[in-house]
């Protein structure tokens, strides 16, 4: 919820990792709250996160943006805290805090010296069921959210294009609605909307506590029981069962024109299966397919064929993230060199993919990628928050701890044949959206 | 329900007891290279950070963007390896090298496993000492750079940054974008790239930081091997520059719904005796978190922006106090008025005792939390050396923050915050706002 002016663009592919030397402990409180402790004593710092199994895709129709708006409002007053007091207290203790909302989850976290764990836990528990909004909170914070939408989306043609692509991709499922909300709906959100959403979804039985870093599991358990364990479960919480996509039978195509566009490009998204509990093999094959096709800007199949051989592409890539509660997308993009039309760029992309399916996976390339994935497990130990995120986002996306820990081995077991089979399955134009992003209308007819 | 038994107050006002476990070893290699090392063997890899001073500010006349393009091409083939061969060799080792350039330095961030450290360093050495700069690679990467320049051309944040730099820095290299322009980058030749390479990758100008699973002895040998063949002379370094910003507003029209405002005036040198009071004052005024005065007044009270902050920025040849926010076109003018009022207020009144205490406990408590990964420690070690800080700085830094008094802040705020000198660059279609010189 907080502005990060110097934030870097995050990469599209996060290599999955396993825990190696880091000890992971998990247990459940009597009220249904799950707890994961990722012990890593590297520095006297702890990351404390509460993840709720609710996100933008769980919003009532017509109230888009309410999950994210509520996330902002959770920094207002509670039974025990003044508005802003949580952040101020964290700050006074040398920590930092923030929150985030996605389609499948909403998370709140603090990073602080490990001897302050109980302090942040007591405050985070306070806003799990003790939010006390007043009408004055609403108008101002809604303005902030509208400015956030202006900054992230309206001022950025690529973000507007992405919204149109997703809306076209999902015929029925709420993933087609942006997390931050459609502008006209975000403008009209009310306090009642926020409190209804809070009453329905927040509570220990819909939350996962992740404590990572310099933390002792027994001590975390004692503190969690003291602060979270006393909160009664919320009876309104029900298992998520969202509307399903109907069979997708026809490709959708769109042309987005914006004079602010610097480089024309073509983007295609295909509806794709996600990682499911106990059945992650297909998602693993898709993950490696994305790596082989687009993982490296130098040696990936698309970079080789389009940037190096044909030399009519500035940038060509593919990406996929299998962590999602419901069906996700597999994505490819081609940014042609000036003078090459988007029709030609699209044809070249399709040709490259067809050739790849014909040629099969280069075994050396696959070995190299698997080796890098293994090494990334070592490098991942250098990033405690990344470790915490892996468990929080996995558990709120329908996976179990066993699934999360099995993932690196499942990736290693993927064969070249699996990858080609996954490619044949996923590259189905009837389930695809093809988008042209262009600077001017004239180019469309050229 | 009241279950908030823990007394929050008990945590206030304590000096944060956390001492970062950061034991820096100072190394001077037989070959004469200075380096700082934090040895940490719990994870079997090393993060190595190199920074060559001067960076993109060493571009020759008329060759703007040459050092940036050279940096982007240096990993595209070396020795017997072409671009793909190099990438394959690097990926086989599961090492990563990233080359990045800015106005004050060219950085090399390397990460390599203990199990194949020698091979990884041999490969990195190949890129640093025998880059091929094949014409094919230059042309391919040039297209990528040009595409970035085209993307930035209509981006309000980029436009604001370029305009403010142009206003601030006259004919100094800081005045122009180090990526260059479509014209300057389009005209660069292979010879320009070779010159750029020779101008900036200079052994005598490199700062070195390392953290991870490596001993001082091994690091010393590694550095002599890695850097020993580099030349000792490069292009002359830039001169310090007087900031030429004047008070007023510059409007840059752009058809976007939200205006981006960037603002600044002169800052304070890093080695000024009043740097720490200024640093603490700015934490209160526009620092991180929603509790800063700017954030409280512009965001929390009025909802005029998603985020606002101010920053003391110390480049090698200039010091500046900068800030930024973005507001809808019909609200940006009001937000500017609020910023100016706050600017005048802190200059006049300084900060309260409570604000000062909060800022100090935050700054001193947050400091040790920075040292939590090999990569961040290696970067910090290089930054400290580039800023000319002593090796015991980490131990003394919180004491300097704690020593700042309300009177110090009052004195320095009067000097630092000058509302009449503040220049706003506003990109968008701001309503009711005209350029004022």
- CATH class of the largest domain in chain B, named Alpha Beta
Describe the biggest sheet of chain A? 6 strands, mixed
Residue windows where pLDDT falls under 50 for at least 5 positions of chain B: 1-20
**How would you classify the helix and strand content of chain B by structural class?**
alpha+beta
Secondary-structure element series of chain B: EEEHEEHEEHHHHHEHEEHHEEHHHHHE
Taking all residues together, what is the mean pLDDT of chain B? 93
How do the strands and helices of this protein lay out in sequence?
The complex is a heterodimer of chains A (446) and B (437).
Chain A: E1 23-28, E2 34-39, E3 45-52, H1 66-73, H2 85-92, E4 96-101, E5 106-113, H3 117-129, H4 135-154, H5 157-169, H6 183-186, H7 191-201, E6 207-213, H8 217-227, E7 252-257, E8 265-272, H9 281-294, H10 301-309, E9 313-320, E10 328-336, H11 342-359, H12 363-380, H13 384-396, H14 401-412, H15 416-426, E11 432-438, H16 442-445
Parallel strand pairs in A: 2-6, 7-11
Antiparallel strand pairs in A: 1-2, 3-5, 3-6, 4-5, 8-10, 8-11, 9-10
Chain B: E1 24-28, E2 34-39, E3 45-53, H1 66-73, E4 77-78, E5 81-82, H2 83-92, E6 96-101, E7 105-113, H3 117-129, H4 135-153, H5 156-169, H6 182-186, H7 190-200, E8 206-212, H8 216-227, E9 248-253, E10 258-266, H9 275-286, H10 293-300, E11 309-314, E12 319-328, H11 332-349, H12 353-366, H13 374-386, H14 393-402, H15 406-416, E13 423-428
Parallel strand pairs in B: 2-8, 9-13
Antiparallel strand pairs in B: 1-2, 3-7, 3-8, 4-5, 6-7, 10-12, 10-13, 11-12
């Amino acid at each position: 919820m907080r502005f990060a002016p110097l934030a870097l663009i995050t990469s599209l592919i996060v290599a999955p990792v396993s825990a190696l030397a880091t000890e992971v402990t998990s247990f459940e409180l009597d009220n249904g709250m799950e707890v994961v402790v990722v012990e890593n004593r590297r520095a006297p710092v702890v990351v404390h996160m509460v993840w709720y199994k609710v996100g933008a895709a769980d919003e009532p129709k017509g109230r888009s943006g309410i999950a994210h708006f509520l996330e902002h409002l959770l920094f207002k007053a509670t039974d025990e805290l003044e508005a802003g007091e949580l952040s101020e207290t964290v700050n006074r203790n040398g920590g930092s805090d923030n929150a985030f909302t996605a389609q499948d989850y909403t998370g709140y976290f603090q990073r602080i010296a490990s001897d302050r764990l109980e302090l942040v836990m007591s405050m985070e528990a306070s806003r799990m069921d003790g939010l006390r909004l007043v009408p004055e909170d609403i108008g101002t914070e809604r303005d902030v959210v509208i400015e956030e939408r202006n900054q992230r989306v309206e001022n950025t043609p690529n973000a507007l294009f992405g919204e149109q692509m997703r809306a076209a991709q999902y015929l029925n499922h709420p993933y087609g609605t942006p997390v931050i909300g459609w502008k006209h709906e975000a403008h009209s959100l009310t306090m009642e909307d926020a409190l209804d959403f809070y009453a329905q979804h927040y509570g220990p039985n819909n939350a996962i506590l992740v404590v990572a870093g310099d933390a002792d599991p027994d001590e975390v358990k004692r503190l969690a029981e003291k602060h979270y364990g006393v909160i009664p479960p919320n009876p309104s919480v029900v298992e998520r069962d969202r509307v399903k996509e109907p069979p997708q039978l026809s490709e959708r195509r769109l042309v987005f024109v914006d004079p602010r566009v610097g480089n024309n490009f073509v983007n295609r998204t295909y509806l794709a299966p996600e990682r499911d509990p106990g059945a992650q093999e297909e998602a693993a094959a898709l993950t490696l397919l994305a790596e082989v096709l687009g993982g490296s800007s130098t040696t990936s199949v698309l970079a080789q064929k389009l940037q190096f051989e044909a030399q009519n592409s500035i940038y060509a890539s593919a990406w996929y993230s299998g962590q999602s509660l419901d069906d996700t997308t597999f994505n490819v993009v081609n940014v042609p060199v000036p003078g090459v039309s988007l029709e030609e760029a699209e044809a070249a992309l399709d040709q490259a993919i067809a050739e790849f399916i014909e040629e099969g996976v280069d075994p050396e390339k696959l070995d190299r990628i698997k080796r890098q994935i293994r090494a990334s497990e070592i490098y991942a130990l250098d990033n405690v928050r990344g470790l915490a995120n892996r468990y929080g986002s996995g558990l709120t996306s329908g996976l179990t701890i066993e699934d999360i820990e099995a993932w690196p081995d499942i990736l290693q077991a993927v064969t070249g044949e699996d990858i080609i089979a996954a490619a044949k399955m996923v590259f189905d134009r009837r389930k695809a959206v093809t988008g042209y992003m262009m600077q001017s209308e004239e180019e469309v007819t050229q | 329900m009241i279950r908030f038994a823990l007394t929050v107050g008990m945590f206030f006002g304590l000096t944060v007891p956390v001492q970062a476990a950061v034991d820096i070893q100072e190394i001077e290699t037989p070959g004469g290279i200075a380096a700082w090392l934090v040895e940490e063997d719990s994870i079997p890899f090393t993060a190595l950070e190199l920074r060559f001073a001067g960076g993109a500010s060493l571009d020759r006349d008329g060759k703007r963007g040459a050092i940036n393009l050279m940096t982007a091409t240096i990993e595209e083939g070396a020795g017997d390896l072409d671009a793909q061969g190099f990438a394959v060799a690097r990926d086989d080792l599961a090492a990563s090298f990233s080359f990045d350039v800015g106005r004050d330095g060219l950085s090399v961030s390397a990460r390599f496993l203990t199990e194949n450290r020698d091979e990884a360093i041999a490969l990195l050495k190949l890129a640093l000492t025998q880059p091929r700069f094949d014409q094919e690679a230059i042309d391919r990467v040039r297209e990528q750079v040009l595409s970035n320049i085209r993307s930035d051309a209509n981006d309000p944040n980029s436009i604001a940054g370029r305009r403010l730099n142009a206003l601030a820095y006259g004919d100094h290299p800081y005045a122009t974008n180090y990526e260059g322009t479509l014209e300057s980058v389009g005209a660069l030749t292979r010879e320009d790239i070779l010159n750029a390479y020779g101008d900036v990758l200079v052994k005598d100008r490199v700062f070195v930081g390392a953290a991870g699973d490596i001993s001082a002895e091994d690091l010393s040998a590694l550095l002599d091997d890695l850097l020993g063949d580099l030349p000792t002379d490069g292009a002359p370094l830039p001169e310090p520059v007087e900031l030429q910003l004047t008070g007023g507003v510059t409007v840059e029209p752009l058809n976007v719904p939200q205006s981006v405002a960037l603002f600044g005036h002169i800052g304070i040198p890093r080695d000024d005796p009043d740097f720490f009071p200024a640093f603490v004052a700015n934490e209160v005024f526009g620092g991180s978190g929603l509790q800063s005065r700017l954030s409280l007044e512009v965001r929390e009270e009025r909802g005029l922006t998603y985020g606002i902050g101010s920053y003391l920025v110390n480049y090698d040849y200039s010091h500046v106090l900068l800030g930024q926010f973005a507001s809808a076109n019909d609200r940006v003018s009001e937000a500017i008025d609020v910023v100016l009022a706050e600017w005048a207020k802190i200059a006049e009144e300084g900060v309260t005792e409570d604000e000062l205490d909060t800022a100090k406990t935050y700054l001193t408590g947050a400091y040790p939390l920075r040292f939590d990964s090999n990569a961040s420690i290696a970067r910090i070690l290089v930054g400290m050396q580039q800023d000319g800080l002593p090796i015991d700085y980490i131990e003394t830094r919180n004491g300097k923050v704690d020593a700042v008094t309300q009177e110090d802040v009052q004195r320095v705020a009067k000097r630092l915050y000058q509302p009449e000198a503040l220049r706003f660059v506003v990109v968008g279609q701001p309503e009711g706002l005209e350029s004022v010189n």
